[in-house]
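hey can u run this one w/ zinc ion bound, need the structure tokens asap thx
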Amino acid sequence: MNLEKYTLAGEKLPILAYPDPVLSAKAQPVTNFSPDLENLVKNMLFTMYHAPGIGLAAPQVGVSERIFVLDVDYDREVVTNSSGQDEIIMSNFNPMVFINPIITGTSGTTTYEEGCLSVPGVYEEVKRHKSIHVKYQNLKGETLEIEADDMLAICIQHENDHLEGIVFIERLSNLKKNFYKKKMAKEKVR
Ligand code: ZN
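ok here u go:
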């Protein structure tokens, strides 16, 4: 399925910020592989590319269903055009969609400084599996499997956590977790 067309057209969906309750809820399995699902995925990809981010899970746009999109390969460049304005040029898209994913195997460990569109401005190292095996469905409801390593594996684990109601700061030490929780709560009040 050609997902690349979704980089060019779509609707930018509002992204929920931590600690919104939808981000803490366990998402429900997708059972209906309808045009509505395709439309949601299209808008999620558009939203991700224009945020910009490398992954986006349905709960982040207020939909508590087991869906995420990602692209760990695309290039994004800011160029100044002939009228002196900054323009964002994106290329080399490799959009992926995971529906009802299950991580069926893991090996090794790795750490990476992660960020999240729902936790703006926070970047912290998180320990993850280096390699994973994932079973998932595509937009047609077909079951697929992949082996993922490094950046792709990290991104899938981060997005899969969102489907379990886990935001990456929950995986930090208690000290850091409490610091960010207080900070986010204060920002929400303001
Ligand atoms: Zn995230």
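The first strand starts at residue 55 and ends at 57. anyway lmk if its weird
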